[in-house]
């Protein structure tokens, strides 16, 4: 072609994912702190398990929705489907990938509405109330003090910020318990993301499955056991009232067993395809 067509639709997808990330911030990181502040100590593991289990159900339904959308032609609603001569098994087939964004966006909007009815504040334990009163008194005392005449310069503020940030980072990374958990989480997420990212394409190319069927199989077989395991882990922690050390030993044991079971994949395989000149002779 003399001039290749260009599209800026990726900008809308970029902005949409950015807004989604902003909206997820109060739920994922701050949601755990919210539960930790307002829930009973013995119920926190169950609530956190329910939160992460629900978070795992989302990708499962996402894969199932992707399987359904992959069966639909990309230009559905704009072309006569009777004139389409290819099937989803054809390598030239392109599914209606954009339909999942519309359905997911509407579902996110509806799921966000109940949060508008949450109370502005909840009843805190007495200890927390006392701490809050102390902070309020300290803040009021600071407000009563006369403002300083010499305002700090921007370079001084930047140096103070970097110094405090370095001190905080050093304190966090010197915590052996947190640092070990951080490394463990990085290894788990790295392997899990690679598993989710490449397994559908691997199933398509190695086993001749369609995109729709690959997404369906992964959504049904891979994610529900993970969500069930998270929920059961929360129940076990509540039942045996595990502290930090016991929870760490429990997590290490389960992770090691999961690694040992994953090694069994080396013993699972299929026969090689018959390829003339490679696996069999030309004769």
Automatic annotation (TrEMBL):
UniProt-listed GO biological process terms: monoatomic ion transport; sodium-independent organic anion transport
GO cellular component: basolateral plasma membrane
A single GO molecular function term of this UniProt record: sodium-independent organic anion transmembrane transporter activity
Location(s) in or outside the cell: Cell membrane; Membrane
Organism (species): Oreotrochilus melanogaster
Protein name: Solute carrier organic anion transporter family member
Transmembrane stretches, start-end: 96-118, 177-196, 216-237, 249-268
Protein's UniProt keywords contain Translocase: no
InterPro entries according to UniProt: MFS_trans_sf, OATP
A Pfam family per the record: OATP
Family as reported in the entry's similarity comment: Belongs to the organo anion transporter (TC 2.A.60) family.
UniProt cross-references to PANTHER family, sorted A to Z: ORGANIC ANION TRANSPORTER, SOLUTE CARRIER ORGANIC ANION TRANSPORTER FAMILY MEMBER 1B3
């Amino acid at each position: 072609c003399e001039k290749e067509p260009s599209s800026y639709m990726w900008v809308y997808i970029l902005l949409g994912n950015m807004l989604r990330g902003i909206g997820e911030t109060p739920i994922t990181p701050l949601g755990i702190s919210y539960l930790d502040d307002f829930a009973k100590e013995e119920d926190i593991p169950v609530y956190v398990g329910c939160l992460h289990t629900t978070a795992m159900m989302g990708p499962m339904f996402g894969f199932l929705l992707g399987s359904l959308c992959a069966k639909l032609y990309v230009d559905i609603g704009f072309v006569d489907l009777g004139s389409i001569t290819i099937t989803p098994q054809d390598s030239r087939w392109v599914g209606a990938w954009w339909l999942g964004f519309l359905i997911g966006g509407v579902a996110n909007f509806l799921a966000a509405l109940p949060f508008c009815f949450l109370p502005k504040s909840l009843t805190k334990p007495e200890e927390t109330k006392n701490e809050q009163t102390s902070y309020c008194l300290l803040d009021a005392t600071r407000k009563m003090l006369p403002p300083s005449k010499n305002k700090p310069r921007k370079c001084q503020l930047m140096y103070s910020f970097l110094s405090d940030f370095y001190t905080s980072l050093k304190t966090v990374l010197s915590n052996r318990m947190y640092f070990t958990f951080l490394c463990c989480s990085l290894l788990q997420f790295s392997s899990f993301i690679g598993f989710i990212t490449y397994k559908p394409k691997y199933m398509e190319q190695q086993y001749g499955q369609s995109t729709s069927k690959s997404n369906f199989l992964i959504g049904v077989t891979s994610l529900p056991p993970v969500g069930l395991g998270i929920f059961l882990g929360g129940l076990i922690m509540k039942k045996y009232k595990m502290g930090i050390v016991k929870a760490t030993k429990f997590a290490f044991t389960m992770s090691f067993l999961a690694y040992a079971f994953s090694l069994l994949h080396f013993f699972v395989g299929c026969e090689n395809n018959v390829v003339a000149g490679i696996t069999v002779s030309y004769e």
